[in-house]
Structures are given as C-alpha cells and as structure tokens.
Specification:
Layout (H helix, E strand, L loop, with lengths): L2 H18 L9 H12 L20 H16 L6 E6 L4 E6 L2 H9 L10 H4 L5 H6 L3 E4 L11 E9 L6 E10 L6 H38 L3 E6 L2 E4 L1 H6 L2 H12 L10 E4 L5 E11 L2 E10 L26 H15 L4 E4 L6 H12 L5 E5 L6 H7 L8 E5 L9 H13 L5 E6 L7 H4 L4 E4 L10 H12 L9 H8 L6 H15 L24 H16 L4 H8 L3 H11 L9
Parallel strand pairs: 11-14, 11-15, 12-13, 13-14
Antiparallel strand pairs: 1-2, 1-5, 3-4, 4-5, 6-7, 6-10, 8-9, 9-10
C-alpha cells in the first residue's frame, strides 16, 4: 500500500477511534491500537498534552556512560540524514539528544522533546518513547499513529534497553525525525543500538561487581563482624552474616543499599534484627566511576549477650494511650516504667515510627499524671529551647523529652551537654527521656548522662499486637464511629512488611477511612501500597499506574486477563508492571 494512502487510512481510523472508541479498519497495528486505548484511559490531551519536566535526571549514570559511545557512533553514521538520536531513562525522561540539523533542534525544543522532559505514554500518548517502554519491545510510530495531534508531524522509533542480568528496563534509545523523512528501518537501527548498549552494560556490570567484591573482601579482612554486600540483585555474605541474618533482614539491607549515595559518610545506624537482636550497622558506599556500584554493610553485635532477665514473664503493663500484649512490647513498657519510678534518665532506641514518643508519654501519664510533659526537637530546636521547655524552675513531676537526640548538630553538642548536666542537678529533678534511632550515632558526651536504655520494638517484631493497634488507631482516627476492619482487610495487613512501623499503619488506616467513612473497612478500601512488596520510591506517575492496576484487579476479582483488558494493555505488560511494582494481589489469577 502506498505510504500516502496508508497515512490517510490511519488518520481516518484515529478519528473514528477518538469518536467511538473502536476501529474497524485493520490498517492500524494492534500495538498502536492498544496504546491508543491506554492513552485514552490515562486522559491524555489530544491537542496540547502536558509534558512534565524534572531536574532530577542522572546524567552520570552508568546507562548514560554506556550509551554515549553508541549514540556518538549512530550520530556519525547518520550524518546528513535529518534525524535525532535520543536516550531516555526508564520513565521516559530524555537524558541526551543528538541532532543532525539545527532545524530539528528548534522543532524538538518547541514541543519540549528535550532533556529533563518526560515523553511517557501516560503524559503524551502514543509515541516511540512511551509506547516502547509500555510494551517492553521496539516500536515505530509515524504521523497519525501518534495519539496527540501535536506529534502527528513526527515519526519515531524506540527500543528499550534492558539490564542484561535482571532484564529490567534501564532506559530507551530512540530515533526521531519528521514524518516525511521516516523509514521503517529506523526500528531495526534502534534495536541494534539497544543490544550494543546492553553489551556495554554487561561489561560495566561485571566491573561494578568486581569493585564491590573487592570492598566486601577488604571489610572481611579488616574486621571479624558480620559483613554483607549488595550490588544490584547480587548479595554476598560472610559466614557470620549468613548465620545471623534472615531473608527479611537481608531485604531490609537491600533497601538501604538502594538509598546509598556517593557522599554518604558511613555513619552507623541501629537496626533491630528479625530474631530480636539489636545491631549497629555501618553502610559503606562503593563508588565506580561517577556512580554508586553497591554497598557493603558491617554489622556489629555485642560479643557478650546482655545478662538474662528473670525467667518469669513480665506482666502486662497498661499504659494510657498504649496497647500491646507481645512480650517484646511488654518488656519495653516495664523497663520504661522502672526508669520513671527510679527517676533514671532514659534513652529510648528504635526505628522511625515505632512509637518512642508515645511510649514516653504513656509512662508519664501513668506515673506522673497531671504534671507537664515537655518535648524538645533536637533536630530543629536550638539547645536554648530546653530552657524554655522547663521555664528554668522545674515543677514536680515534669518530664522532658529530647526527640531525635542523635540528629543534634555537632556544633550544639557541647551546649546541650552542659544544659543537661544543669538540669539533672536541679531539684525537684525532672525525668529526662531522649529518643534516638541509633545510639551509635549519638555523641558520647550526651550518652554518658543517661542511666537506662529501652529498645522500642518494630511492628514486625510485635505483629501479635496488630489487632489491638488497629482498634486503638481507628478509635483515635474516627472517635465515636465504631470503625473496624473486616477479616479480609486484616489478612492483607498482617502480611505487610511495615517498614514504617506503627506510623505507617496509622497512615494506611487513615487512607482507608477516607474511602469508607462508615461501616467496616474492607480489603478494597486499603491503599494500593498494602498490596505491594516493592520498597523503592515510586515516582508520581508510577504511583498512579500502581493504583490503577490494583483497582482494576480488585474490580475483576483478581483476574489478570480482565484487568489487562480494562486497562488497555497486554497481559504481558500487566505482568511486567505487577512485578516491577511488587503487586502481590492475594486473589490474582490468570
């Protein structure tokens, strides 16, 4: 079929689709038609779509490093041909663009086809960048095959670049030109270029693994502690780490590895292991070139275990505003109340969101109800705020809590130490409590002033308390409404990893109540994050995609085929996104 005739038929089919949602003419490829459906479902503007810009793109990543020689070679070979070579990341954001003509550069800039701008399908509709990333395979989009009118003057061919080991999409290579200059061979060229970049990524990945291995072995030689390294999906552990860490502990360390940055100073942090032991963890970021190759973790556990507590089980302690019957939580409440009774300065250690401040407040309400409870945030408040909190003359029963003492700026440590010494000499002496995420990160000048330590357990170590916590939090979030969770919702909640602890549970229940302000919270009322195991930070558009997939699966009872049809995507694309977002719908079926 002549090219002009085909374009006219595609243009007519596009107009028919926009009017009725269906196409009778088989001239439109299934890939394009499916993309049109997705674009329509996403609400893409067919006239002037919004092309978002983000300045957080990484131009020093190993993708850019490995793609640069391939792009330069393509640019040289295509010299004299009016086409641009483009590299994007896995979200469709342009990283680099090499133009063969100045005229093309002006054209692309006018439509924001430039570094930093995202051409993801959810924003601009069917195009060589976004559609190739959605389908996970090379595509060629020309003229009226584009969903939005502004792109109909162009043609583009894109091919995803996959990690050669994990097969995860790392980015995309694209050739773009005016529609009248297009040729179907563009798809073949970008596919070959993508394979070349993947080969370079494999070579670079091998080098990254070598650098991380060397850092791992150096740590093993330097210390006798447990050592574990993470390089992408590859984890290495020495004998002590293998015996000490459970799969859940390793998963948590892999999350910490993803968060590693070149400038990290390797400050130790506290980590509560799955089997109840507390470790001081030092993360050493491994650099390769200008990027992060991986991370090595050194875990220090006290050689001599703490003196065993009495064999008797601690009796439950009912503290105002607190619930829980698990032994780890009971032990923490007993120890905290003993410190308050003995007027011992107390250090409460625990992960973010476990309820360290709530524990201090509950003990205060129990042992000195009616007295003042003063809180100083050491991360943002100057030490002088401590003086304001106690009004210089402490009243009987006063409790002073120093939140985030481990985050106190170094230049304020000496002043805070002097103020605390004065405070502990006053009469009547207030009960002083400090909350920290890591005792190792707290200066010794401050630690020496505390006589007792309590570890507030993470929610994953007191999962037996989940039912009581749900009831207590719902009563607080919806007073007087008799809100509750159905059994099917609780089954989902009990499987969550709860990295954010009780604070995360509170956010989940608050979101569920917004969806169902009256009646029992059901499984479908829970936010999509409850149905995923992915713990990497998702972009706004990824969160929208994840939420849409979870809602579709819920509406069709977990049937993936029906959900894919509802979303206008292939079943393979749905499976790929479910895996990428960690969606683990319990009722999902093919």
């Amino acid at each position: 079929m002549p090219t002009t005739d085909r374009r006219l038929r595609v243009a007519k089919a596009r107009a028919e689709f926009l009017a009725s949602g269906s196409v009778a003419d088989a001239v439109v490829e299934e890939t394009i038609l499916t993309s049109w459906r997705r674009s329509r479902f996403a609400g893409v503007d067919i006239g002037t779509p919004h092309v978002p810009y983000g300045d957080e793109i990484d131009l020093r990543s190993r993708l850019v490093r490995c793609a640069t020689p391939v792009m330069e070679r393509m640019h040289e070979r295509l010299d004299g041909i009016p086409v641009s070579v483009v590299l994007t990341d896995d979200k469709g954001r342009l990283l680099e663009r090499k133009d063969s003509e100045r005229r093309l550069a002006r054209v692309w800039d006018n439509v924001y086809f430039a570094p930093g701008f995202s051409y993801a399908e959810a924003y601009v509709g069917t195009n060589g960048v976004g559609t190739a990333l959605e389908d996970g395979r090379p595509v060629f989009v020309s003229g009226p095959e584009h969903f939005n009118e502004r792109s109909m003057a162009f043609a583009c061919a894109g091919a995803p670049i996959r990690n050669p080991l994990t097969r995860r999409i790392e980015g995309l290579i694209d050739l773009s030109c005016m529609a009248e200059d297009a040729h179907p061979m563009m798809r073949v060229l970008v596919q070959e270029a993508a394979l070349d970049i993947e080969r370079l990524l494999l070579d670079d990945g091998t080098e990254r693994q070598r650098v991380v291995l060397e850092a791992f072995l150096a740590s093993c030689r330097r210390c006798t502690c447990a050592v574990l390294s993470v390089c992408g999906d590859i984890v290495m552990a020495n004998e002590r780490a293998s015996a000490l860490l459970t799969p859940a502990d390793v998963a948590f360390l892999k999350i910490m590895a993803v968060e590693a940055r070149p400038g990290d100073r390797g400050m130790p942090v506290g980590m509560s292991l799955t089997e109840g032991r507390w470790a001081q963890v030092r993360r050493r970021t491994v650099i390769h070139g200008a990027g992060v190759a991986g991370a090595v973790f050194e875990l220090h556990i006290p050689e001599t275990p703490p003196k065993p507590r009495s064999a008797r089980v601690s009796p439950p302690v009912a503290l105002p505003g607190l619930v829980g019957r698990s032994q780890t939580w009971i032990d923490a409440t007993v120890q905290a109340r003993e410190a308050a009774t003995g007027q011992l300065p107390l250090l409460i250690v625990g992960e973010a969101g476990v309820g360290k401040l709530a524990l201090a407040h509950g003990v205060h309400q129990d042992s000195r109800s009616g007295a003042r409870f003063a809180v100083v945030n050491c991360e943002v408040d100057a030490p002088g705020a401590l003086i304001d909190a106690i009004d210089r003359e402490p009243a009987p029963g006063l409790t002073v809590v120093l939140r985030h003492l481990d985050r106190l700026p170094a230049e304020r440590v000496a002043e805070m130490s002097a103020l605390l010494e004065d405070l502990l000499r006053q009469y009547p002496q207030p009960w002083v409590v400090a909350t920290v995420g890591s005792a190792a990160a707290t200066p010794n000048d401050l630690l020496r002033l505390f006589e007792a330590t309590v570890t507030a357990p993470p929610l994953r170590h007191r999962i037996d308390d989940l039912d009581q916590l749900i009831t207590a939090l719902l009563n607080r979030l919806a007073p007087g409404r008799a809100a509750q969770c159905s059994d099917d919702a609780k089954r989902v909640l009990v499987r969550n990893a709860w990295i954010g602890n009780v604070a995360e549970l509170n956010e989940v229940l608050a979101a569920a109540l917004r969806r169902r302000p009256a009646g029992a919270i059901r499984r479908e009322d829970l936010p999509p994050s409850c149905f995923t195991t992915s713990r990497r930070a998702l972009s706004p558009i990824e969160r929208l995609e994840r939420d849409a997939i979870v809602r579709a699966l819920a509406e069709v009872g977990g049937n993936r085929k029906s959900a894919a049809a509802m979303l206008g995507m292939s079943r393979s694309s749905l499976y790929r996104k479910m895996h990428a977002f960690g969606i683990n719908s319990l009722d999902a079926r093919s």
